[in-house]
Amino acid sequence: MPLTIHNLNHQIHDGHIERWLLTRVSLNIAPGECVALTGDSGSGKTTLLNLIAGLEPLQQGQIYVAGQGLRHAGDKTLSQLRRQTLAMIFQHYNLLSSLNVSDNISFSARLAGRYDQSHSLSLARNLGIDHLLDHYPDTLSGGEMQRVAIARALGTRPKLLLADEPTGNLDNNNSDKVIEQLLSLAKSHHSALLMVTHSASIAGKMDKIYQLKDGQLNQQSCGG
Ligand SMILES: Nc1ncnc2c1ncn2[C@@H]1O[C@H](COP(=O)(O)OP(=O)(O)OP(=O)(O)O)[C@@H](O)[C@H]1O
């Protein structure tokens, strides 16, 4: 399983009081499965992604990423997991401004020791950005930058892809195209995808929808 979450509880300091942000959260995501994570602002979506990425320590419960338990895992194990097993896509792209598109795409794969030029090129072609390989990020549109970020993320052949409102900065038309490409590439690479979104129409394109509300994670119907 790319992702298993078992009975996760997470407490935060809210001013002077402590508050349970996540309670008894459990979730399984299978290879190639695309799952939407929805919920009101402040419900804990980004915190949950950060816990899955090993960026915040687990307090109670367990998260397994491709079989590796995160609770009590050391820094070396967690950073290896972030390089080799999972990849993240952010709303603000997080491209390196001093590197051209080609080097941005290959950056994570090189760090993971998995750089494969033909794979990077094929991702760029599939995303329609192969004519931009020698361009720099500040000359690209938002949609083009996010396509570069998607190619960079998939370049490591991650088992699990975490995306935090990846099209939050794009207009509807552009957003739909980028999401279609992301879903199709995640499926063809057998990468599981967990995507935070506020958009009901984007969530409706995914295999499953989960909502965080009052600390609890519940599956919603995909009907709409
Ligand atoms: N380390 C922390 N210490 C204290 N409070 C925190 C911490 N991390 C997150 N919070 C609080 O937890 C709540 C959830 O934050 P989070 O960013 O996870 O929500 P979200 O669902 O992603 O929201 P949005 O949709 O607005 O991005 C917020 O009230 C936030 O202020």
Reconstruct the topology from this structure.
Blueprint (H helix, E strand, L loop, with lengths): L2 E12 L2 E13 L4 E6 L5 H8 L7 E6 L2 E2 L5 H10 L1 E4 L11 H11 L5 H10 L15 H13 L5 E5 L7 H17 L3 E5 L3 H4 L4 E6 L2 E5 L4
Helix pairs in contact: 3-5, 5-6
Bound molecules: adenosine-5'-triphosphate.
Structure in words:
Residues 3-224 form the ABC transporter domain. Belongs to the ABC transporter superfamily. Keywords: ATP-binding, Nucleotide-binding, Transport. By secondary structure, this protein is α/β, with parallel strands linked by helices. The chain has a single domain (30-47, 81-220), classed as Rossmann fold. It is built from seven helices and ten strands. The chain has helices at 45-52, 75-84, 101-111, 117-126, 142-154, 172-188, 200-203; strands at residues 3-14, 17-29, 34-39, 60-65, 68-69, 86-89, 160-164, 192-196, 208-213, 216-220. The strands form two sheets. Strands 6-7-8-3-9-10 form a six-stranded mixed beta sheet, sandwiched between helices. Strands 2-1-4-5 form a four-stranded antiparallel beta sheet, covered by helices on one side. It is globular. Bound molecules: adenosine-5'-triphosphate. Adenosine-5'-triphosphate binds next to strand 1 and helix 1.
Strand count, sense and closure of the main sheet?
6 strands, mixed
> What's the CATH H-level homologous superfamily?
P-loop containing nucleotide triphosphate hydrolases
The radius of gyration over CA amounts to 17 Å
Fraction of residues in H or I helices: 25-40%
If classified by CATH, what would the architecture be? 3-Layer(aba) Sandwich
Bound molecules: adenosine-5'-triphosphate
CATH fold-level assignment: Rossmann fold
Please tally the helical runs, counting DSSP H or I stretches of 4 or more residues: 7
Helix-and-strand structural type: alpha/beta
Write down how many β-strands occur, each being a DSSP E stretch of 2 or more residues. 10
* Mean residue pLDDT: 95
Give the count of structural domains.
1
Q: N- to C-terminal separation? A: 27 Å
Strand content: 25-35%
